[in-house]
Amino acid sequence: MAAACSRNHSRESKSPFCFILRGNIMGFHIYRAVACLILTISPCFAEDDHEMEEFLKREYSLSKPYQGVGSLGSSHWELMGDAMVTTDQVRLTPEMQSRQGAVWSRIPCHLKDWEMQVHFKVHGQGKKNLNGDGLAIWYTKERMQKGPVFGNMDNFTGLGVFVDTYPNEEKFIEAQKKRYTPRTQRIFPFVLAMVGNGSISYDHDRDGRPTELGGCNAMVRNLKHDTFLFIRYVRRRLTVMIDIDGQHEWRDCLDIPGVRLPQGYYFGASAITGDLSDNHDIISLKLYQLTVLRSQKEVDEEEEITIPSVDNIELLRLDQNEEGMSGIAIFFTVLFSMLGCIFLIVICLVLYSHWNESRRKRFY
């Protein structure tokens, strides 16, 4: 019918059906053009968590076959301490006591938005709570510095994400003659994040609880399937997720807005053992550059960041303060409850005596 309309112009001009059909055909072409335009520009208006373009940055990534890792001048990565390279992994520490090792990038990272995917493995002969101590992923100003914080220096400047496998805080709680509450007890292994400004110390006895931004339990030891850690930093928002169940699905661990990290810091991974030990292996560190549209104001604010900080740090510490006051709060709650009960009993006795006295007067 459309062909008939195009062949007979005189009839086309008089037939209402042809007018409608031509309008539908033109409308379809217009709709198709608009749809193509929308599909073309839609990534520009996408949310941060969707449709972001990502590019693997090989100069900041570590993966098999680990060519030249640790050798002078022939690799972007440098080994420290007891770390060693094998065909299958970079072993940060062997399953031996009092060892620490690390691998650090030689190139500072100047990306505004990035995503790190960590393929790691923690395994050993130790049973539950008889293993340690854990590993850490770093984005810090300092590099290649031995220390007590999972094999890195204390009072670091930047971001640390820790996979802590031993609960030191249990001994601290026992020494203080305190007890965990269901709200405050953590199950280990535990993943947590901390931002340091060069003057904040990691509390080893309390497993970093006073300075943690958030965390989650992660049963990562001696698993037969692969385990992954996901760290994303976009528009001053830090997100950590884990994939440890063998289902190839990310599980939320923490999501903190207002995290300010300067550019030009170094990526690294480290681990430490003490009286207890584990093999701490890094299979790969893959860094992706994320392309996110920013306003000029946001660009200017990023350039002003010189010291790592967290905007809402006071709110994050509020729970810690409430935890410290929990014993006192319980004491005063019980005390005032008892006083309230006594007061009510006295009032009831006074009212009863008045009622009883007035009742007897009515009989005389």
From TrEMBL:
GO terms for biological process: endoplasmic reticulum to Golgi vesicle-mediated transport. It is a single-pass type I membrane protein; Single-pass membrane protein. It is found in: Endomembrane system; Golgi apparatus membrane. It holds the Pfam family Lectin_leg-like. The chain crosses the membrane at residues 328-352. InterPro entries: ConA-like_dom_sf, Intracellular_Lectin-GPT, Lectin_leg. Keywords: Disulfide bond, Glycoprotein, Golgi apparatus, Lectin, Membrane, Metal-binding, Signal, Transmembrane, Transmembrane helix. Coiled coil: none annotated. It comes from the Eukaryota. The keyword Nucleotide-binding does not apply. GO terms for cellular component: COPII-coated ER to Golgi transport vesicle; endoplasmic reticulum membrane; endoplasmic reticulum-Golgi intermediate compartment; Golgi membrane. Residues 54-290 form the L-type lectin-like domain. The keyword Metal-binding applies. One of its GO terms (molecular function) is D-mannose binding. This is Lectin, mannose-binding 2-like a isoform X1.
